[in-house]
Amino acid sequence: MSFFLTLLGETPLSLLGAKAKTIPTATVFVPKNAPFTASLLVNPDRLEAFRQVLAEPKQRQRSHQEFNRFKKILLGNTGLNYQRDIKPWLGEEITLSLIAADIDRDSSNDKQPGYLLALTSQNPQQSQEFLELFWQRQAVSGVMVTSETYRGVTITYRQRESVELAPTLATAVLSDRFILFANYPKVLREAINNFQVSTLNLANSESYQKAIAALDSSQIGLVFLNLGNWELTPDEINALPIQPSLALGLTLNPQGLLADTAIIATTSEEFEPPLLSEPPQP
After folding, report:
1. Are 29 and 116 spatial neighbours (Cβ–Cβ below 8 Å)?
2. Over the stretch 112-126, which tens digit does the pLDDT of each residue have?
3. 67: buried, middle or exposed (CB in 10 Å: 19+, 13-18, 0-12)?
4. Which residues of 144-180 are buried (b: 16+ CB within 10 A; e: fewer)?
5. Which site from 23, 165, 198, 217 is most exposed, i.e. has the minimal number of CB atoms within 10 Å?
C-alpha cells in the first residue's frame, strides 16, 4: 500500500493537494516597499507535467510552447539556457521582483527599473558549479567580469562603463540555497541588506503577511503589488497614512488555474488623524 501512495505522490496530479499557507522564502531578499513581486512555489517542470496530464491532446503542444516562452521570459537577456543551465539544480521556488521603478531615484534621467530574480537550489554544489562555469565562459569570450565582497557575500557581474547606471547581469549565492540574479550590482547589495536586517524585507511586511493570511491555503503561486509604490520615493511611501496593496494567489484544480484576490490597506503606525479646530460643517 505504501508503494502506491508513494507512486501517487510522485505524479503531477499530486500538485492538486492542499499546501499549507506559507510565505515564499526568497521574499527575505525583497524590500518591503517593492512595487511588484511574484513567486512560483512549484518547480515549473512539475507544473508543465500537470498541464500535460490534464490537457486535451490538441492542447498539449500549445501548453509546452507556453512554458518554453515562460522560461525564456524568466531568464530575459542573461544568455542562460534553461534546459542546460537551470533545470538540473532548480528547486521548488522562483521569486521575481521589481524592487524599484527607478533604481537610482533620479528624475533627471530615464527610469532604470531594478529587477531581482531568486531561485532555490535543490543541489547547492551543482548550482555553484554552474555559476562558476558560466562566469568562466563569459571571461573567455572577452567579457570583463568583476567580483566584490559585500557583507561577506561574493557578488559577480559583467563590468560596464558605469557600474551603477548601466544595466548588466549580476549574481550572488546566499545560504547555499538561493541563487540571485539582478540587472545591477546595487540590487544585490540591497537584497543582502534586506536578508541581514529582517525589518527591511517583504517577508516581514505587515501588509504582505495579511495578504498571505487572506488568501486560499493551496497556493502554487503568489503575486503581490504595492499599489502606492510605483512613482513615489521611499520617504513619500512611508508618509502615506494608508498603504494599499493587492495580492493574487494561484491555485490548481482539474480545470486549470484559479485566482484568489485580496486587497489590503495597512495603516501606518506613525499616522495620527489630524485634530479638528472646529466641528465639521454639515
Report:
1. yes
2. 889 999 999 999 999
3. middle
4. ebeeeeeeebebbbbeeeebeeebbbbbbbbeebbbb
5. 198
